[in-house]
Amino acid sequence: MNDKRRAKANRAKRMLEAALLIIESLMDAEESALEGIPENMQTRVERCEDTISNLEDAKASTEDAIRQIEAAVDR
After folding, report:
1. Which pTM does this prediction carry?
2. Among candidates 14, 10, 4, which has minimal Cα distance to 62?
3. Where are the domains of the chain?
């Protein structure tokens, strides 16, 4: 990988790292919201849990993308 492409890859990595921070913030907010939901509102609890699960998947995918870019840059 030449310097120009390496710089682009590093820029993409920084963008993914920023996205990861946003995803983590959303997860924290959703988990806080979940804690405030009364138990008698089961549908809302389930939606909140599904949202957290989706965000966890997004976080894992983003972390994997960061690792993949790091591996590409290190070659």
Report:
1. 0.82
2. 14
3. 3-74
